[in-house]
Specification:
- With 245 residues, the protein is α/β, with parallel strands linked by helices.
- It has helices spanning 9-26, 41-52, 80-87, 109-122, 159-165, 184-188, 203-211; strands spanning 2-5, 31-34, 62-65, 67-69, 99-100, 128-131, 153-156, 178-181, 192-197, 229-233.
- It has a single domain, classed as Rossmann fold (3-Layer(aba) Sandwich).
């Protein structure tokens, strides 16, 4: 695992965008795994700018998002499909038929999860998976558990995750209590993994996840075993790891 403390949040985003761009340039038909949340917004803006400047094309790229709230239609302004269209898909030359997000509006969890795994397999697997890091160490919506879940599944969100996401909804009562998410096994099967983290409030979990014991109680810690994982953090998120990087 490569751990990088960037010079700033903007530098973190630029470094991450450049890494994604290098995958697309090396294989224009690559498969990207994408993430939502506030942290990737900057790197998506960088990729949009690069595409508009003619530096990169997503015309033949296929994407799979990590997760989606269960119960939200894609048109809902807090759905992850809506987020991706707002911040990336509607501003680049990607074929939106080749962009995939779990069907949050479909209540049949078994069907949704099985179909998503099959679609990833049919695409040849994920070449580069982008990840953020939750305040409790979750990646995707894989919450702390006794074991590492393998495949795409439906998860009950923890109270800490609901609280963290409530800022995006009118009321905490509006926050979905479940989500569909890629499993740890699906994430670990990606050929490369890229993690971005920013903010002083993430400093402690960054240290636990990437320099502590590997345990399902800190789901992201499993990434220490990935053969090609790169973690890029801003100075605040990396503050407790300066002597370890």
């Amino acid at each position: 695992m490569e751990f990088i403390i960037a010079e700033s949040a903007e530098d973190m985003s630029r470094r991450a965008a450049d890494r994604i761009a290098s995958f697309v340039e090396a294989d224009p038909s690559c498969v990207l795994g994408l993430a939502t949340g506030t942290t990737p917004i900057g790197l998506y803006a960088d990729l949009v700018a690069d595409c508009k400047a003619g530096k990169i094309s997503f015309a033949d790229v296929t994407t799979f998002n990590l997760d989606e709230y269960r119960g939200l239609a894609p048109e809902h302004d807090q759905s992850y499909r809506y987020f991706m269209k707002k911040h990336l898909f509607d501003h680049i030359d990607i074929d939106q038929e080749r962009t995939h997000v779990p069907e949050g509006f479909n209540p049949d969890a078994d069907a949704v999860c099985a179909a998503y795994e099959q679609a990833i397999e049919a695409a040849g697997g994920i070449d580069l998976q982008l990840l953020g890091l939750g305040p409790n160490g979750h990646i995707g919506f894989n919450e702390p558990e006794e074991t590492f879940p393998k495949a795409t599944h439906c998860v009950d969100l923890t109270e800490s995750t609901i609280q963290a996401n409530s800022r995006l909804f009118d009321s905490i009562d509006d926050v979905p209590r479940q989500a569909y998410t890629m499993g740890i096994g699906t994430i670990m099967a990606a050929r490369s993994v890229l993690v971005v983290v920013e903010g002083a409030h993430k400093a402690e979990i960054v240290k636990k996840a990437f320099f502590g014991p590997v345990t399902p109680e800190v789901p992201a810690s499993i990434l220490q075993f990935h053969p090609d994982a790169v973690v890029i953090v801003d100075p605040a998120a990396g503050e407790l790891c300066r002597d370890m990087a």
